[in-house]
Amino acid sequence: MKRMVVMETSEQNPSNGHRTDASWVNDSAHKAWARTRGAVSELKRAAAIEERVNRNPYGTVAAALGIGYVLGGGIFTSLTSRIVALGLRIGIRLAVLPMLKDEISVLADALGGEGGEGSEGSKGRRGGKAAKPSGER
């Protein structure tokens, strides 16, 4: 003989004094979700996020990773100090070395121009070209 199991619904078996109608929870969740979606769409519109992503997708991903790293507490770690130190070293090399190279070149041209400016036999330091006086750049 087969036995039938019947499940009782919440209307048939009210719980211990709690409200059985959960529709108010559902309604408030839907309202909160609608407000959140509205706020996110307004933020997207204000920041023009979709246009930025379309123009520069890799930059957007890099910015998101950086923001996540900072918000995740990675700003005061040893890894961050190493990254900053490496960035400073590379930045100094990229910014200062070309400037120093130009200044040394100007100094070498000025020193080379004093000795034998008009002589054909004097060659400068750059592949056999005569050094130019500093005023003829």
Short characterization:
The protein has 137 residues and is mainly alpha-helical.
Describe, in plain words, how this protein is organized in 3D:
The termini are far apart. 62% of the residues lie in helices and 0% in strands. The chain has 137 residues and is mainly alpha-helical. Among the domains are: 27-74, no CATH class; 77-113. The chain has four helices and no strands.
Helix content: 55-70%
Largest sheet: none
- Assembly state of the chains shown: single chain
Structural class: mainly alpha
- The value of Rg in angstroms is 37 Å
| Total helical segments | 4
Q: Write down the secondary-structure element order.
A: HHHH
Low-confidence stretches: 118-122
What is the 3D shape?
Answer: elongated
How many strand units?
0
The chain-level mean pLDDT equals 76
Cα(first) to Cα(last) distance is 108 Å
Strand content: under 5%
Could you name the key traits of this structure?
62% helix, single chain
Write the layout of secondary structure elements.
Blueprint: H1 23-47, H2 49-55, H3 57-71, H4 78-115
Helix pairs in contact: 2-3
